[in-house]
Structure formats: C-alpha cells, structure tokens
Amino acid sequence: MSCLSVTSLEQAKAKLPSSVLPIDGLRRDSKGDLTKDALQTIVDGLKSRSVDPTDPATKKGLIGDLGTLLCSVNNQYQFLLKELFRQVAAGENVEASFIDTLKEKNMFMQDIINVSRHLYGLRVYDASSEFIEGWQNTASDSVAMSKFEGFTVDQLQRDQEMLSSGSYLELRKHMVDITKEKNVAASNYLGLYGFLNLVAIGLLIYVAAGPA
C-alpha cells in the first residue's frame, strides 16, 4: 500500500477502503472521538477475522497500513481545502455537501489517529508466552508510528469547528500558521543535523591529525 497522490476533485472526494476501520455507527464522545468501548469493538472485530493485534508483527503491519491510509486521506483533505479556499476567494457559493465531505475526511483522519494510538498501546504477546505493555514494544513499532508525526487530533478538531461555523478565512489562516510551524521545525532539524555533521567532520580531522 502506498500513499495516494490526489490530482483531481473526484479523487479527493472518493471514499478510501479500510479493513481496520469499519466505524459506522460506533459510539463517540462529546468531542466526536471514538469512545473506549468503540475502540475495543474495532479490536474485537479484527480478532473475529483472525487478525490478532497483540501479535507484534501483525500490530506493526496494522499501524503501518493506517499510517499510509492517513497520508492518503490527508492528501484528499488538503486538496479539498485548497478547492474550498479557491471558491471562497472567487466569491462562489460553497455547497453544504462539499463542506460535509471535508468534515468527513477530517473525522476519518481523527479516527485513524485514535485507532492507531489505541493499537500501539495494546499489550502484545511475545515469544516467551508473556504479555508486555505497549510502551515496551520494539523500535519497529515506533518507526511505524513515525508516519503520524505532524498530525494531531486537537488540530483536526479545530479545523472541524471552523468548518462547522463557516469560518473559512480563519481556517485558511490556521492552515498557514500550521505550515509555518512545520517549516520552522524542519529548519531547526536540518540546522541541528548540519551542526552534528560539522562536529563529526571536526572529530575526524582531529583524529586523522593525531597527536602533535
């Protein structure tokens, strides 16, 4: 499975299938998040299909697939947001159905994040026949979860509120601010990486020069 590249409105609106997230009709809290019993229902549904999320390899695969799905849905979401901002800037009438589609993509992303976190925190069964806590899982689990960096439920919930209230200009400003924050974070990371490279080069030169 690879991250979907979205180049048309039709692609952006399309529903993406997921074998992990049959979430229609599941209970949600006041914020719209899936409740604990809803998350457990999803886990039970996986087990009923002989997919055991307490198996380390299976768990890693599930989280990895959800990370790729999140990337694909985000590409759809971003494409739809750009179309929304274009319509607003052009003074066009924004149809309620279009906003509903945006809100559905937003909620789907929240669900993917929440379910992935729940799976990551599950106790897993290792070869020694003992359960270990989720936070003790292998480094490969953390690598799988790295696909979720830069995505937060709080951020998406703020988007959802602005979509519901019709605050599209405020939403655009919010998206610009998020982009700036990500760019600053990326610049800081590259700066640190460059500094560490310089230190490493300096050490190599020092070692190569040897004692005076």
The secondary-structure element order is: HHHHEEHHH
**Which value, in Å, is the CA radius of gyration?**
21 Å
The total count of helices amounts to 7
Strand arrangement, major sheet: 1-2
Shape: globular
Instruction: Supply the helix-strand structural class.
Output: mainly alpha
* Fraction in beta strands: under 5%
Q: Ends: how far apart? A: 57 Å
Major β-sheet, in short? 2 strands, antiparallel
Give the number of domains.
Answer: 2
Helix content range: 55-70%
* Mean pLDDT across every amino acid position: 79
Q: Total number of β-strand segments?
A: 2
Question: Which stretches are low in confidence, meaning pLDDT under 50 for 5 or more residues running?
Answer: 183-187
Helix-strand blueprint:
Elements (H helix, E strand, L loop, with lengths): L8 H5 L22 H13 L7 H34 L6 H25 L3 E2 L5 E2 L6 H7 L7 H13 L2 H42 L3
Antiparallel strand pairs: 1-2
Helix pairs in contact: 3-4, 3-5, 4-6, 6-7
Describe the structure in your own words.
The protein has two domains: 9-166, no CATH class; 169-212. By secondary structure, it is an all-alpha fold. The chain has a two-stranded antiparallel ribbon with strand order 1-2. β1 and β2 form a beta hairpin. Helices cover 66% and strands 2% of the residues. The chain contains seven helices and two strands; from the N terminus they run ααααββααα.
Could you give a quick summary of the protein structure above?
With 212 residues, this protein is mainly alpha-helical. It has seven helices and two strands. It folds into two domains: 9-166, no CATH class; 169-212.
